[in-house]
Amino acid sequence: MPRTAIAGTGYYVPERVVTNHDLTLLMDTSDEWIVERTGIRERRWVPEGMSGAEMAKRASLMALESAGLRPGDVDAIVLATLSPDHLIPGTGVFLQRELGLEGIPAIDVRAQCSGFVYGLSIADAFIRVGQYRTILLVGVEIQSTGLDLTTRGRDVAVLFGDGAGAAVVTATEEDGRGVLSTHLHADGRGAELLWLEFASSKHHPRITEEILRQGRHYPSMDGKEVFRNAVARMPEAVQEALAANGLGVADLDLLIPHQANLRITQMVQRRLGLSDGQVMSNIHRYGNTTAATIPIALAEAVREGRLERGDLLCLVAFGSGFTWGSAVVRW
Ligand code: ACO
Questions:
Q1: In angstroms, rounded to a whole number, what is the distance separating the alpha carbons of residues 137 and 293?
Q2: What SS3 state is found at 186?
Q3: Does the Cβ of 331 fall within 6 Å of ligand 1?
């Protein structure tokens, strides 16, 4: 049975840098508050009119180039996002069209911050059963157009940014290399603790002026509950993944956690007893780009030379749903 290797990585972030100071001009907040609680110093926002599919295309072309492949080599697209360009259809088909890959399947994954890990698990299953050999796996997010940029929305608005990350995963017969296992979880009891309530197909009409006035078309979050769950579930998922392969934290060369918040990453690191060198963090530059954080961080880690052939990599995510999951990869 073939294994799944990560053959190439890529990312794209918009050029526009939005600093914490820039946000103070829009809402009552401060650089000190944001840095102290989240570690975020700046994030990127898309220019008017740039789509998620466009960002995804740029990240994908970089990933394909680094894998030494062409778009035509891709057998299937798996795209994770919580901010689709349109509600119908999913962003996957727009990316497929941008890449000129008519005919191959495009699957959208809706697992929020865990989308990339969920997507990797789906791609890995396709590859192991032999259905596809080369899959383009993308996490892309445009958060900036959907945030309440007034003081009312500041607890959420300061956290998020825009960006895209991609990985080309391919079947390998090389012994010991590739995705060793993936582990997915969800607990819908936490669904309303981090969600975007409207527009909702449960209601007719799906949105009203009253809902807009109340700001219930913006994401909302119980920050403390999200924090509490994230710092419990992420270390558990890492331990689960390592144990499933007879490995321990000392074997880990690099952990790439979902970049939710620096304090969450630090707590996960402490609970697992990992050194700074074992944990990837780039949240200070991009904020939380939800499904895109892990593939962007992975692409940067590769370019910073933090992964060498044979290294043990673990990806771990937690997000809205709640959803969470992990993957261990022999690089
Ligand atoms: N700037 C200034 N003040 C703010 C801001 C802001 N951006 N946001 C909230 N405040 C105020 C609050 O109104 C509150 O004021 P009050 O005491 O007068 O009521 C005060 O700051 C403290 O608010 P808390 O909510 O208690 O702040 P807390 O220390 O819990 O930090 C935070 C909030 C950073 C959101 C924290 O709960 C957290 O990190 N949660 C995790 C959430 C997260 O990472 N979500 C990302 C998405 S989910 C994911 O990716 C896993």
A1: 13
A2: strand
A3: no
Measured by CA distance, the residue closest to atom 5 of ligand 1 is 155
Return the residue whose CA atom lies nearest to atom 46 of ligand 1: 260
Catalytic member of 20, 217, 258, 261? 258
Q: What is the distance in A from the centroid of ligand 1 to the CA of 155?
A: 5
- The residue whose CA has the least distance to atom 32 of ligand 1 is 223
Query: Using a 6 Å cutoff on CB, does residue 194 contact ligand 1?
Result: yes
Q: For every one of its 331 residues, what pLDDT tens digit does the chain have, with 9 covering 90 and above?
A: 999 999 999 999 999 999 999 999 999 999 999 999 999 999 999 999 999 999 999 999 999 999 999 999 999 999 999 999 999 999 999 999 999 999 999 999 999 999 999 999 999 999 999 999 999 999 999 999 999 999 999 999 999 999 999 999 999 998 889 999 999 999 999 999 999 999 999 999 999 999 999 999 999 999 999 999 999 999 999 999 999 999 999 999 999 999 999 999 999 999 999 999 999 999 999 999 999 999 999 999 999 999 999 999 999 999 999 999 999 999 9
Q: What is the pTM of this model?
A: 0.97
Determine whether 282 is an active site residue: no
Measure the CA–CA gap between 19 and 137, rounded to whole angstroms. Answer: 29
Select from 263, 241, 260 the least CA-distant residue to 252: 241
CB of residue 193 inside a 6 A radius of ligand 1: no
Instruction: Characterize the bridge pairing of strands 3-12 and 42-45.
Output: unpaired
